Amino acid sequence: MVSSTNSTAKNWFITGASRGFGREWTIAALERGDRVAATARDLGTLDDLVAKYGDALVPIRLDVTDRDAAIAAVGQAHDALGRLDVVVNNAGYGHFGFVEELTESDIRQQMETNFFGLLWITQAALPILREQGSGHIIQVTSIGGLSAFPGLGAYHASKWAVEGLTQALAGEVKDFGIHVTLVEPAGFATDWGGASSVHSEPLPAYEEAHRRNEEARAKRNTSGPGDPHASAAALLEIVDAEQPPLRCLFGAAAFTIVRSDYESRIASWQEWDRVAQLAQG
Question: How large is the average pLDDT for residues 42-51?
Fold first, then answer.
């Protein structure tokens, strides 16, 4: 059981609750006495939680790429729970493939799920949270929303889009008492890179590049994957904070990777600042 210093029960809406982070966070919220509207494409994956937690869990079948269904799901959750305190956009998957290998379907489906699905849920929840004058939207992005690696271009495109959308959103809704946080995990022991992932058909021209990319990926993961169960305590601390952060990295290796990337960017901008000034005229 994950403990919390917060004594006020919260009502949650969590997408992608069938596995990984979504399931762990659903259980953590229920264990401390909160109520959760949990979505999944296959409601059978939530049967054990329904049996254990009863009416505290509201299972909702949802494919987040269906805009009308997403709007209806948020409304159903609000009707069942009476209010929404925490909205967690967790549903998503990783698409593996070099940019030249991506089909139109590959990139469109990645954006439909990871970006547009999140947008539909956010838009549906905002009128409810504004009316309440409170609420917290948690957008699950990734270290891949801050940095980028070969072979994940479609995934990075979706997560960078979420980062930009959400930073703008945070400024738009703060006067309504709505908090917004981007949770940015590094590598965790979920099935993100396994059963949940999708892979493009590799092109022979990139065979050697794929090999090098896999070697580099293995080197980045020397600290080992994070524990999804342990992440629940971190999330609860964020949602219980009086002033939660706009961004929070999850995972031991995350800050090292991001700091190195941003230091490199700043160095490059400084090196080429003369050209930036020249462009000013």
Answer: 97
d(CA 237, CA 232): 9
pTM: 0.92
Six-digit token string for 194: 């396994």
Structure-block tokens of residue 266: 């700043």
Q: How far apart are CA 240 and CA 237, in angstroms?
A: 5
Domains of the chain (ranges; CATH) run: 11-255 (3.40.50.720)
Please pick, among 53, 93, 155, 206, the residue that the annotation labels catalytic: 155
The end-to-end CA distance of the chain, in Å, is: 61
Examine the pLDDT at 84 and tell me if it is beyond 50.
yes
CA nearest to 28, candidates 217, 186, 229: 229
Residues in the chain: 281
Q: What is the DSSP letter of 140?
A: E
For residue 1, pLDDT over 90 is answered with no
CA proximity to 225, closest of 198, 249, 251, 248? 251
Decide: 96 and 156 in contact? Cβ < 8 Å: no
Query: Is 206 tagged catalytic?
Result: no
Q: In whole angstroms, give the CA distance from residue 56 to residue 78.
A: 13
